[in-house]
Amino acid sequence: MSTDKIFSAPIEKIGDFTFDERVAEVFPDMIQRSVPGYSNIISAIGMLAERFATPGSNLYDLGCSLGAATLSMRRNITADGCQIIAVDNSSAMVERCERHINAYKAKTPVDIREADIREIEINNASVVVLNFTLQFLSPDDRQTLLEKIYQGLLPGGILILSEKFIFEDQTSHELLIDLHHDFKRANGYSELEISQKRSAIEHVMLPDKIETHKKRFTDIGFSSSEVWFQCFNFGSMFAIK
């Protein structure tokens, strides 16, 4: 696993963060050292997929990056005749995802697609995963995508949504940001790396409040939703049709 040193040297002009070749190369290290609880979320996605996957249905990993959630689902599902559809718009991510998926043999086939998740058809779905993906879409596109997912879910199907959250109470919000930065420091990131990464991503990743997510789910028609995991200002939710 290559070490993330993308922001370790001073950058004269910091551009917007992109999931390019450099990021794809170090992504496993970056995500483990940057997102508290990431491994727990990935493991639990497999557990939820095992519970909710129904025979002959599709499971979607939208914004699959290197395929961690896809592999977790494929390792855990026991229902017959399922297919996992993994989608990402980064060619560098898709290329590596294909290598990772093909390295492990399993009965459930995986269809890996390089595409915009907003243009993918969702149908016959028992499980849909958006693992730290929705926050990179423009706010106007989020409701539309979630509505399309709802329409493509089978009755009783589940959407798993992992995100960074913002909070109404300013004291709590700032404390959770500070704790996240402490987490990154404890994982070896320097002050320069933390600062430059934050500058690169602040206009690209626009998090929502938990209440905003829940309101969307309710307005769309999901029967229930809840936060099932949270560590500092990162977490994961489910919504059941």
UniProtKB/TrEMBL annotation:
Listed GO molecular functions?
carboxyl- or carbamoyltransferase activity; methyltransferase activity; S-adenosyl-L-methionine binding
Q: What is its EC number?
A: 2.1.3.-
Task: Give start and end of each Methyltransferase domain.
Answer: 61-157
Q: Does the keyword Transferase apply?
A: yes
- Give the UniProt keywords, A-Z: Methyltransferase, S-adenosyl-L-methionine, Transferase
Top-level division of the source organism's lineage: Bacteria
Binding locations of S-adenosyl-L-methionine: 38, 63-65, 88-89, 116-117, 131, 198
What HAMAP family does the annotation carry? Cx_SAM_synthase
UniProt family annotation: Belongs to the class I-like SAM-binding methyltransferase superfamily. Cx-SAM synthase family.
- Subunit notes for this chain? Homodimer.
Function, as annotated, reads: Catalyzes the conversion of S-adenosyl-L-methionine (SAM) to carboxy-S-adenosyl-L-methionine (Cx-SAM).
Q: State what protein this is by name.
A: Carboxy-S-adenosyl-L-methionine synthase
